[in-house]
Amino acid sequence: MESLKTSFERELKNKLLQKSGGKTSEETVLMKAFKYFDLNNSGAVEPDEFAKAIEKIGIIIPTKQDLDALFNVYDKDHSGSLDYREFASEIFGRECGGASPAKKGQGPEVLLDKLRKKLASRGARGIIGLGKQFRIMDDNHSMSLDKYEFTKAMQDYMLGFSEGEISTLFHYMDYDNSNLIEYDEFLRNIRGPMNENRKKLVDQAFGIMDKDGNGYLDYNDIKDTYNAKFHPDVKSGKKTEKQILEEFLETFETAHSLRNNNAPDHVVTKEEWEEYYNNVSASIDRDDYFATMMNAAWNLDGKRVTKAGWSNKGESSAPKGGFGNKP
Question: Is this model's pTM higher than 0.90 or not?
Answer without folding.
Answer: no
